[in-house]
Backbone:
């Protein structure tokens, strides 16, 4: 097993790793067929109802397949108030799960504060993209820590991934 590569077992909380802001703030990423394990979360007005059970199941599958990337992350696509698609980065394709690839240019930015500020962050990300002379195609959200770990670390950090077009 390659669990040591996930950084989870080195976390202060035994749950979520502390976000390394340097890896995610104000970055430009180019992906060509980057593989992700894709799943779906049920929500009520964008509040996730089964995130814990879904991500636990997906992490178990990734661990079994030894498919963790060196720096694990996941992004959500808030497809409706009633659900979100979850994409967990993997370093290889493996059977028994749905794998989807993403391609394109992505800008990232780290935001900090309560979840209720997600609308403000989305607007700020749109402005960030426009200042770079690019067009926003889609926003994805990396909620880096669960509520328990957010409380432990004393801050809530969310990374927005803006898929952009020139």
Residues:
């Amino acid at each position: 097993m390659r669990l040591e590569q996930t950084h989870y077992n080195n976390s202060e909380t035994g749950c979520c790793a502390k976000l390394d802001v340097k890896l995610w703030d104000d970055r430009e990423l180019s992906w060509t067929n980057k593989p992700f394990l894709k799943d779906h979360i049920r929500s009520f007005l964008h509040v996730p109802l089964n995130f814990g059970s879904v991500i636990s199941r997906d992490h178990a599958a990734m661990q079994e397949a030894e498919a963790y990337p060196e720096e694990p992350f996941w992004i959500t696509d808030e497809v409706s108030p009633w659900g979100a698609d979850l994409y967990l980065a993997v370093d290889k394709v493996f059977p028994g799960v749905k794998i989807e690839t993403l391609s394109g240019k992505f800008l990232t930015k780290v935001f900090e504060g309560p979840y209720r500020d997600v609308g403000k962050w989305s607007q700020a990300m749109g402005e960030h993209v426009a200042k770079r002379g690019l067009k926003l195609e889609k926003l994805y959200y990396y909620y880096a820590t669960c509520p328990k770990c957010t409380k432990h670390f004393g801050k809530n950090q969310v990374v927005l991934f803006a898929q952009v077009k020139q």
User: Anything to note?
Assistant: Residues 1-7 have pLDDT under 50 and may be disordered. Residues 25 and 65 are 30 Å apart (CA to CA). The chain is about 25% helix and 40% strand.
